[in-house]
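chain and backbone:
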Amino acid sequence: MEKLVFPDLYCPFPFQINKYVDVLEDYSFEWVQQFNLLTNPTEYQHFSKAKFFLLASYTYPYCQFEELKIANDWMSWLFVLDDQCDNSHLGQQPELLKGLHRRFLEILYGAETNQQDIPLSKALSNLRQRMLQIGDTKSFNYFVISVKKYFDGCMLEAINRASQTIPNLDNYEMIHLLSSAVDISIDLGEFCNHHLVSDFVRNHEIINRLRLMTNKIICWCNDIFSVPKEIANGDVHNSIIVLHYQHRIPLNQAVSIVADMHNQELKSFLDLQATIPYFKKEINDEVSKYLSGLHTWIRGNFDWSCHSGRYQTGNIKNQIPIQVG
């Protein structure tokens, strides 16, 4: 594989980190061990290198420790599921994955776990209970809708893998916006920060467009960092790999294209944000908090990607620099 050289990624938002990061690092293994989510030394090593506690600390810098633990455990749950799909080839078996997702949704809607449930199901039940202790049912139901979208995206990826289909760029982007779990992460901010989003803000056209743009920005950032891992695993679900096959261009050229897409989308995000009209003070304060959550996820995901060992394979020629505007 050619050595990959990455151009600058633009990000004007400041670095932030939760004050409980060190305590969270000590806690981060307790929950996954409690529910037996790591079953062997290799999984333990991969989990340790990924540093999910940093992702939670970067993307939820203002919340208190109990809320931060929920965020950390959700990140851990999602990535453990992703790894189990890869390692067991579950991610290539759509029907089996569909049954697993169905059970997960039953649990999120209140079903009790039983002896037949796998550890991930029991851990999910624990997450549901803790979230409902700190948040309201209405926000939780919106959250579950985002989880279902994530499952839908994972299913579409599994169908492609099973049929050995390489999607075109438009189809891939549609799938990745679902399977990225960015919507889950944004909604999780409502619980972590006790920020109940009104229907007015939730349904506002500009806010929804900014949320979608945040998803795109994070997806393209993730594709740039994760492409060596996906090439090594033979997974085509990456915009760089899709461009490489679709347009028969070198990987480094595809990297530059995706980096330009990322940077341009972020600049368009800032331009659109500047058009938000003035509302009454209560709504303005709510919008400000919501936008802060989008900003911290864009920047926090980048910072975590730089410090995590999850995507490192030794094929990257140089670290990806950040251009602060």
